[in-house]
Design brief:
heterodimer; A: 129 residues; mainly alpha; 3 helical TM bundles of succinate and fumarate reductases; 5 helices; 0% strand; B: alpha+beta; Ubiquitin-like (UB roll); Fumarate Reductase Iron-sulfur Protein, Chain B, domain 2; 2 domains; two-stranded antiparallel sheet; 10 helices; binds iron/sulfur cluster; binds FE2/S2 (inorganic) cluster
């Protein structure tokens, strides 16, 4: 076949940078991925907290008052909500990847596990404070 | 049957011998409750505009050739009905594939990706064992063994999942949902011994790890295969393969 005389001229539509805005489905996916952004802020806070603890009492107190500011509280509340949302999507996807038990059972199990670990941490850390 | 109600179909046209880029054309099509998108296309071709190009064959969601975008969502034309849409219908060729003409897409990449994962039973001892003296034995399979991969075995190669996959859109070398599902289907088959031959493809950068679990592929699959689940099961297999590889000399 000689390519020169081929009447073929396939047209490929370019994929724009805004591809993910086109669909409800893609927007939901991007939202799920975006939950990592507020989490980064929280991790930064946490690291700063450990650092200030090591620096002595004054810097620890400074960190505590920083964390108590309304905008920091609001951002961290957002982080918490975003993480719960991410957990929900993750827990629903997991049984499809590892179909060990019926999906509703696995989803319930994962939430129970999360609550148990959270309760344990609260108990341990709560005891220290 | 009397067809009095009409619907507007806006169809993307592209003639490689004349057009620089695609354009849109409107058609009025009479329809009733049983008119599929494919029926409407056939009506246009037969009664309004014989130059319209599109693919079809079985008309019953088996052959996978009538794939088009309907209002931006990948659909089988024969399994999608005009009655499901309240307004106009916008028909375009499959996203992420090059358009040959009108609604006809170039599926070469898709077929290459399917081929790349060796989607057939591979037996290691085959040639050695089937001498005239030793008659080939049937390979037995229990219902439980069948159930392991059955869900992933009903793919009709329609390519809808590729049109739904942004990762394939961004990187055409990504093997994509159907091919990776097919690989998983054969890897899970107890009669197959070709997993080791398929894993390098799956482990590679265009294999399972190219998937970020957008999950739209599973939504559009007309056979409800859940390709997203299959691909991510492939990730588990790939990770296991990697860890086992660490301990092998
Ligand atoms: S996995 Fe589903 S959507 Fe993808 S090619 Fe097969 S049948 Fe079509
Ligand atoms: S014509 Fe065969 S799947 Fe639609």
């Amino acid at each position: 076949m000689s390519e020169q005389h081929s009447p073929r001229r396939p047209y490929l539509a370019p994929l724009t940078a805004s591809w993910w805005l086109k669909h409800r489905y893609y927007r939901f996916y991007m939202l799920r991925e975006a939950t990592v952004l507020p989490l980064l802020f929280f991790c930064g806070c946490l690291i700063a907290g450990f650092y200030s603890l090591q620096q002595g009492e004054q810097s620890w107190l400074n960190w505590l008052s920083f964390m108590a500011q309304p905008w920091v509280m609001a951002l961290n509340a957002l982080t918490f909500a975003a993480s719960l949302f991410h957990a929900k999507t993750f827990f629903e996807l997991f049984p499809r990847v590892m179909p060990l038990l019926p999906a509703p059972l696995m989803i319930a199990g994962q939430w129970l596990g999360t609550i148990a670990v959270a309760a344990l941490l609260l108990l341990l850390l709560g005891g220290v404070l | 049957m009397e067809k009095t109600v009409e619907k507007t179909l806006v169809i993307q046209r592209y003639n490689p011998e004349q057009d620089q880029r695609p354009s849109q054309q409107r058609y009025q099509v009479p329809f009733d409750n049983s008119t599929s998108v494919l029926d409407a296309l056939l009506y246009i071709q037969q009664s309004l505009d014989p130059s319209l190009a599109f693919r079809w064959s079985c008309r019953m969601a088996i052959c996978g050739s009538c794939s088009v975008m309907v209002n931006g969502i990948p659909k089988l034309g024969c399994k999608t009905f005009l009655r499901e849409y309240s307004g106009d219908l916008l028909l375009e060729p499959l996203a992420h594939f090059a358009t040959e003409k009108d609604l006809v897409s170039d599926m070469t990449l898709f077929l290459q990706h399917l081929q790349a994962v060796k989607p057939y039973l591979i037996r290691q001892e085959q040639s050695a064992a089937t001498t005239p003296a030793t008659k080939p034995q049937p390979h037995k399979q229990t219902p439980k063994q069948l159930a392991k991969y059955r869900k992933f075995s009903s793919c009709i190669n329609c390519g809808l999942c590729y049109a739904a996959c942004p990762q394939f859109g961004l990187n055409p070398e990504f093997l994509g949902p159907a091919a990776l599902t097919l690989a998983q289907r054969y890897n899970l088959d107890n009669r197959d011994q070709g997993k080791a031959e398929r894993m390098p493809q799956l482990n590679g950068k265009n294999g399972v790890w190219g998937c970020t679990f957008v999950g739209f592929c599973s939504d559009v699959c007309p056979k409800h295969l859940d390709p997203a689940a299959a691909v991510n099961q492939g990730k588990v297999a790939s990770a296991t393969d990697f860890v086992i590889g660490l301990f092998k000399p």
